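User: Sequence for Protein mab-21-like 3 below. Tokens please.
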Amino acid sequence: MSVICHRTLLFRIDCKMTNFTDEDLDNYLQNQVDLRHRQVSKSVEDVQKIIKDLTAEVSSKDTRFQSIANSGVHNTSLKVILHDQPALVSKWSALLRGRCTYNPAIQVLTPTLFLISVPLQGLMGYKERRTRQWRYYTLSGSRLLSPVREPEKLHQWLELESFVNPSQEWHDARMTMEGDIVPAKVVNVFREHLEASIKTCGLTSKVSILESVGSVVRVAVETSEAQIEVELVPTVELMNYWPKRARWPRLFRRWPSTERARCIKSFGFNLMATSNYHWLLSFSRAEQVLLSNIDEDGGCRRKCYRVVRQLKEDVWCPGSKPVITAYHLQTLLFWTCEKYPCTRDWRDFRGCVLRLVQKLHKCVSQHYLRHYFVRSHNLLKYSNTNELDDVAKKIDSFLDNPGTYVH
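Assistant: Structure tokens for Protein mab-21-like 3:
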């Protein structure tokens, strides 16, 4: 950014800071943000109970799928890997104890849209390996003349040979094709079990399977607060292994600390069945650890994030299928923390909120937000550009007169 542009930005922020105060922001947190948090927490509690019962029933039919109660270090496959690493389990428990309201398998994208990872069992001893370059098959098993498209930066193939000791149940044509574990096939088997389990559990009045495009299982769950749309994604959880393409932490960065970054990487990553052929890399455990104790120096990072998230949901980007979700804002927060690592950078509540909003405005305007761990991937690459431009205009209006929205 040029010196002139930087001064213009500072002038704009300085002028607007005069029309709302820290007290206004604290009141906004108490009256708007906390109310939303209580409502969402109740919805999460209701959804978690229902999905826990459903996935437990699915697991009783097919042990390759586990209940969401077994996610993270509670995953029975990971317990085998971690039985000689009690320190890692203890570290995870300590980081989340009292700080994580939700089951780690649940990601709240919006107040009415949840993403839930359904852990898979029987795939142990993962090792990243060079895979065959091309696949010449369809999901039905017929041969193609031209190859299936290669995975993009945040996706990969997954082969049975990637695991030292996959259970015999995974050598199943309903799940695999020419040695590949095929996400769409895994999802199809899961969907069949889920449909049966909804009836077995007597939940037909509360849970209904929705139409979906591609390899996704979408259900509507009726709660005491609202109807919640849930995307259920079979997930391979890989603990104590860090993918090569996630070149993190970056050299000469002071946030997070070296010790904390090493701890975060020890919690590994996930592979999620979100597309037909390719598995999506997910770093949800690492992100949860990164968020825990984010303000241990007394800063206001989390408060800023909560304010911006509320403004996004109320003003800039409301609705059940917004172009910007809480995940985008979380990623933006991580990048901002990395750029401003010092305690003194997070003491001015008003200034920090406006700085985060300015950064969001820049990303939305440019249609570009880097994934935090795999930098080469743009999280907004396939987003609707018209919707992004509309959000940018609304954020611009906010920056012209933020006090109108915060009072």
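Strands lie at 106-110, 113-119, 155-156, 176-177, 180-181, 207-209, 217-222, 227-238, 269-272, 279-282.
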